[in-house]
């Protein structure tokens, strides 16, 4: 583990840890969004999807452990690097006019703090069933955990939907800077590919933003019915 | 032109500083920013006060001495030039201009607008060199160097070590400077034997000096008077990773 300690000690190494864990987390966020979109296919599709994940406990737990490790590493390296960065300029400028630094890049830390808080709430809501235990206990006709009903009933409450929609704004910004950023951190920078690399963050973040926001909005608009009639 | 200048004045490293406002008349658009400060200082001296201390040497953009943050931008508005090459025609009659020193913990203010940049010298001493036995100069063409490698090494070697990258970065990171110095040697055959030791030692010294980390905002590239590309930072990241994981 000497290499890990060496990486954790240097600002460059911290960025490698941050980038690697960020890559895992953003990969998950994208896959998670596409998984969620199955709600548009009706209760049978998404409940079967959820059931199929539960039937592979080894894979599920391996994924959960990797995600948890990535999350902890991401938070730990973010806290350390932010400490070092803030210490590097004890006297602020009276006037600072950034030429190219984006709002997203400037708010990575605070955005991350908000996202961490949201993740805790999100897990309490849909994974542990703590915030709405009555929605969590539902089962469909085939005896499967009724994810569809849980999501629809949850998002029918405007405040719940609102909190999800609001949390997607820092996610949009975080991915916008983060996704393009890890290419640079991993040393991938070439004039031939830079336009694609720099566009990737905004594109990926926008897809995730629109995909995720569509679900609570569709529920509130009544486009995702529950109970489903005639099936 | 008549300008209002808000200039950071600080007696020495241990005294607290603050802004002092000066009104400067008769500014000619063709003056450089430093010439305008010279003219201001002449007036200040005539009043029997202490002139504003700032650094300058070549005044043609190649020495890296001048180090002003003008209206929140290191070396002022415009791309690819040092403070000495900023001309007053970029400002308008009646403008208020704020002038501050570079701000970073490793660059302590010595007086007014002068900061101590010897942290950069210590980073260079940690690895910004190649070790050769001196003697008669070898025939230059004995080691062939591909044209594109020469060009890229020269692009990195254009760094004048002014520190604007540190001043512009929200984290006061010195990565662009260190990356340029690591790359201009690392790209050439003569730099290969010490390539991985160099990057490790220079990064270690950079961290020890207290510079922040790179968060890929690319602000450094935007203010660099030599327009050094952040491509070199990516290159440093590659070399550093290899140095840490594969070349113990």
Features:
heterodimer; A: 231 residues; mainly alpha; 3 helical TM bundles of succinate and fumarate reductases; 10 helices; 73% helix; B: 248 residues; alpha+beta; Ubiquitin-like (UB roll); Fumarate Reductase Iron-sulfur Protein, Chain B, domain 2; five-stranded mixed sheet; two-stranded antiparallel ribbon; 35% helix
What does this structure look like?
- The complex is a heterodimer of chains A (231) and B (248).
- With 231 residues, chain A is an all-alpha fold.
- Chain A has 10 helices and no strands.
- Chain A has helices spanning 2-9, 11-36, 43-54, 57-87, 103-106, 108-127, 133-136, 147-155, 158-185, 194-220.
- Chain A is globular.
- The mean pLDDT of chain A is 93.
- Chain B has 2 domains: 3-111, Ubiquitin-like (UB roll) (Roll); 117-133 and 140-245, Fumarate Reductase Iron-sulfur Protein, Chain B, domain 2.
- Chain B contains 8 helices and 7 strands, in the order ββαβββββααααααα.
- A 5-stranded mixed β-sheet of chain B has the order 2-1-5-3-4.
- In chain B, a hairpin with a 2-residue loop joins β3 and β4.
- Classes of the chains: A mainly alpha (231), B alpha+beta (248).
- The interface between A and B is large, with 46 and 50 residues.
């Amino acid at each position: 583990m000497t290499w890990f300690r060496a990486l954790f000690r240097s600002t460059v190494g911290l960025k490698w840890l941050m980038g690697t864990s960020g890559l895992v987390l953003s990969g998950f966020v994208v896959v998670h969004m596409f998984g969620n979109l199955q709600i548009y296919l009706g209760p049978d599709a998404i409940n079967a999807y959820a059931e199929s994940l539960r039937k592979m406990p080894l894979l599920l737990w391996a994924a959960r452990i990797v995600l948890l490790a990535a999350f902890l590493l991401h938070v730990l390296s973010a806290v350390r690097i932010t400490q070092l960065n803030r210490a590097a300029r004890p006297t602020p400028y009276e006037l600072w006019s950034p030429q190219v630094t984006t709002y997203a890049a400037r708010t990575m830390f605070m955005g991350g703090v908000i996202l961490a808080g949201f993740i805790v709430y999100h897990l309490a809501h849909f994974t542990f069933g703590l915030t709405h235990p009555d929605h969590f206990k539902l089962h469909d006709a085939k005896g499967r955990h009724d994810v569809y009903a849980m999501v629809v009933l949850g998002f029918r409450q405007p405040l719940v939907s609102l909190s999800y929609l609001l949390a997607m704004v820092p996610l949009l910004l975080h991915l916008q800077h983060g996704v393009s950023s890890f290419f640079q951190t991993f040393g991938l920078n070439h004039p031939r590919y830079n336009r694609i690399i720099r566009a990737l963050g905004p594109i990926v973040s926008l897809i995730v933003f629109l995909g995720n926001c569509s679900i609570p909005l569709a529920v509130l608009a009544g486009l995702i019915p529950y109970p489903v009639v005639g099936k | 032109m008549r300008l209002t200048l808000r200039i950071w004045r600080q007696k020495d490293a241990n005294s607290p500083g603050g802004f002092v406002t000066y009104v400067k008349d008769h500014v000619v658009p063709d003056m450089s920013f430093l010439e305008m400060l010279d003219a201001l200082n002449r007036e200040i001296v005539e009043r029997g006060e202490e002139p504003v201390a700032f650094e300058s040497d070549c005044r043609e953009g190649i020495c890296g001495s001048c180090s002003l943050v003008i209206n929140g931008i290191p070396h002022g508005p415009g791309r690819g030039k040092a403070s000495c090459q900023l001309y007053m025609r970029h400002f308008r009659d009646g403008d208020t201009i704020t002038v501050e020193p570079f701000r970073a913990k490793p660059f302590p203010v010595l007086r007014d607008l002068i900061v101590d940049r010897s942290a950069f010298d210590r980073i260079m001493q940690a690895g910004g060199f190649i070790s050769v036995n001196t003697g008669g100069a070898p025939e230059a063409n004995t080691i062939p160097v591909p044209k594109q490698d020469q060009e890229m090494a020269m692009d990195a070697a254009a760094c004048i070590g002014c520190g604007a990258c540190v001043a512009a970065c929200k984290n006061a990171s010195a990565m662009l400077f260190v990356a340029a110095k690591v790359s201009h040697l690392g790209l050439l055959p003569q730099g290969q034997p010490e390539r991985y030791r160099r990057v490790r030692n220079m990064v270690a010294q950079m961290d020890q000096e207290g510079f922040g980390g790179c968060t890929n905002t690319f602000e450094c590239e935007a203010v660099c008077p030599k327009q050094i590309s952040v491509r070199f930072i990516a290159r440093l990241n590659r070399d550093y990773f290899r140095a840490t994981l594969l070349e113990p």
